[in-house]
Amino acid sequence: MTTNALATFGGRDDIKELGYRLQKMMPSAQSFSGEEALAVAQIAVAHRLDPFNGEVWGLKSYNGQWYGVMVGIKGLRKCARRAAAEENGSYWIDNVLTDPKKYNVTQKDAVVYECILRDSVNTQAYGQAIHALTDSGIPYKEAVEMVGPSPKVVGVGIADPSEKSKMGLHARAKKRAEADAIKQRYDVDFGEAAQFTPEEPGDFVEVEAENLPDDFDNGVEEDFPKKSAEDTVSELMGESKAMPHPDVKKNKRETEKPTGPVGILLDLGVDNTHHAANLATKLKLTSKMSKEEINALYSNYLDLKANGKKSDEAAAIVTGEK
């Protein structure tokens, strides 16, 4: 049986047809060359994104300079929902207005939002871990200390008045925070080749609002009247530029991992939070134990299992019950 390694990227005829339709049906894409239209079509087909709905589009100046393909917030949301569904789960977000000082943002009147993203898969696993501990007789408060805080991803978005955009400060910051959170949790970061990200190095020219060409064509018919280069790209940056401040990455909060015995067991190689919580119960680990003590008990447990002891028997020997 012959397989086609390129099947994932779509059929040639489909890509050519979509590229043709973009050039014919989307007025602002009529300036695209055949290759440029195909680049947009390739990303759209491969990732099942709709360029006519503003999920993906090409970036080209009216003087002919091509900047690449951009996947906007609509496209990121679609891909994230699809990835969550493949896990038989879902996700939800909360936007929180945050003190700029938390991320070393010093621009006057800058707005900073955190996007708190939680998903059903990790939330359910966390609940099961807590339940396993409390069922074994451990008080709820101590169980939470053992497992750590509930799992979440924190995305950060920053906007300041110096950016030239018709989009409001709060709207820009929220979208940037959401995009950042989605890309942390799900595998939807398209990279420089498929996303316009001015603050990150890449193969494309770094484009800033103050040094753009006089006119800039985003290839999307969300607004039919032509806009200035600065207005158009600033709005696009509101879709994709999640964290414009250089100090943010130093302070960026990743997904919060469990602390205490469960977190230590995860660091030692236990495969997931639920298993770590069960093992912490079997080995009677407490939050007062040091990492060295937990490491020693876990190592003894693994040695006993390697010598043929079953899990419960090995745990009983380690804890002195046998």
What does this structure look like?
The protein starts with 11 loop residues before the first helix and ends with a helix. It is elongated and about 80 Å long. The strands form two sheets. Strands 2-1-6 form a three-stranded antiparallel β-sheet, sandwiched between helices. Strands 3-4-5 form a three-stranded antiparallel β-sheet. It has helices at 12-25, 34-46, 73-86, 120-135, 140-147, 169-185, 229-240, 248-251, 260-267, 273-282, 291-306, 311-318; strands at 56-61, 66-71, 91-98, 111-119, 153-159, 216-217. It is α+β, with helices and mostly antiparallel strands and 322 residues long.
List keywords for this structure.
single chain; alpha+beta; 3-stranded antiparallel sheet; 6 strands
Topology:
Layout (H helix, E strand, L loop, with lengths): L11 H14 L8 H13 L9 E6 L4 E6 L1 H14 L4 E8 L12 E9 H16 L4 H8 L5 E7 L9 H17 L30 E2 L11 H12 L7 H4 L8 H8 L5 H10 L8 H16 L4 H8 L4
Antiparallel strand pairs: 1-2, 1-6, 3-4, 4-5
Number of strands: 6
Termini, distance in Å?
57 Å
Strand order of the largest sheet: 2-1-6
Largest pleated sheet? 3 strands, antiparallel
Could you tell me the strand content as a percent range?
5-15%
Point out poorly predicted stretches.
191-255
Summarize the structure.
43% of the residues lie in helices and 12% in strands. The protein has 322 residues and is an alpha+beta fold.
